[in-house]
C-alpha cells in the first residue's frame, strides 16, 4: 500500500459523492455556500468513517483471511467497482419523480451520506493487512470526498443541467484497477 494507491481509492470512492453533488446543485439557481459545505462535510465524514467501521468489523477475522487477503481485496473492489459501473450504465427510470420538498434538509443529506458511503464500508476490509496506513487512508478518503463533493456542487450549479457524464464508470474502473494492482503486488513481490 502507498499514498498513490490510497488517493486512487479515495477518488474512486468519491465519485458517487461527486455525481450526487452535481445532481443536487443542478436543482439550485444560485450559489449557496452553506448547503454545499454541509453536504460536502457530511459526505466526507461518512466516507471516512465507513472504512474505519469496515476495518474494525473485519479485524477480528484478519488471522483467518491473511493468506487470501489480496484476493479478498480484489473481490471487494471489483464488486464495488462493478456495481458503480452497472448503476451508471443501466437505463434510468423515465417516470417523473416527485421533487423533494427540501433537497438539502439534514435528513436528506444524512441519508445521501449513508447511501454514497456504503461502498466505503467494504473498503475497510482492504486495509486489514495494511493497518499502518489506516488512519492516513481514512483522512485522505474523507478529505478527497469533501473536495470532490464541494467541487461537484460547484460544477453542478454551473453545468449540471447542460452536461451528463458517467462518473460511476470512472470510479468503478479505478477501484477494479486497484484490486488488480494489489493482487499483482502480492503475487509478484
* Helix fraction bin: over 70%
What is the residue-mean pLDDT, rounded to a whole number? 80
Percentage of residues in DSSP E strands: under 5%
Instruction: Specify the structural class.
Output: mainly alpha
How many strands, which pairing sense, and closed or not: the largest β-sheet?
none
What is the count of DSSP helices, taking H or I runs of 4+ residues? 7
Overall strand count: 0
Distance from first to last alpha carbon: 12 Å
Count of distinct structural domains: 1
In the predicted model, the low-confidence regions spanning at least 5 consecutive residues are none
Q: Give the SSE order as H and E letters.
A: HHHHHHH
Shape, principal axes of CA atoms: globular
CA-based gyration radius: 17 Å
Describe the structure.
By secondary structure, the protein is an all-alpha fold. It has one domain. The protein is built from seven helices and no strands. Helix 2 packs antiparallel against helix 6 and helix 4 packs antiparallel against helix 7. The longest helix is centred in the first third of the chain and has 27 residues. The two termini are 12 Å apart.
Amino acid at each position: 500500500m502507498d499514498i498513490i494507491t490510497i488517493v486512487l481509492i479515495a477518488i474512486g470512492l468519491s465519485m458517487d459523492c461527486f455525481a450526487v453533488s452535481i445532481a443536487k446543485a443542478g436543482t439550485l439557481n444560485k450559489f449557496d455556500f452553506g448547503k454545499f459545505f454541509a453536504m460536502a462535510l457530511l459526505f466526507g465524514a461518512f466516507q471516512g468513517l465507513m472504512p474505519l467501521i469496515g476495518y474494525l468489523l473485519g479485524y477480528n477475522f484478519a488471522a483467518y483471511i491473511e493468506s487470501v487477503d489480496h484476493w479478498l481485496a480484489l473481490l471487494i473492489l471489483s464488486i464495488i467497482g462493478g456495481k458503480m459501473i452497472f448503476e451508471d450504465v443501466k437505463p434510468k427510470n423515465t417516470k417523473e419523480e416527485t421533487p423533494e420538498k427540501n433537497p438539502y434538509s439534514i435528513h436528506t443529506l444524512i441519508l445521501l451520506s449513508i447511501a454514497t458511503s456504503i461502498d466505503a464500508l467494504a473498503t475497510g476490509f482492504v486495509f486489514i493487512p495494511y493497518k499502518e496506513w489506516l488512519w492516513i487512508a481514512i483522512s485522505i478518503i474523507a478529505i478527497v470526498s469533501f473536495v470532490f463533493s464541494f467541487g461537484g456542487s460547484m460544477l453542478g450549479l454551473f453545468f449540471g443541467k447542460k452536461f451528463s457524464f458517467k462518473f460511476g464508470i470512472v470510479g468503478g474502473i479505478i477501484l477494479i484497477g486497484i484490486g488488480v494492482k494489489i493482487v499483482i503486488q502480492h503475487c509478484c513481490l
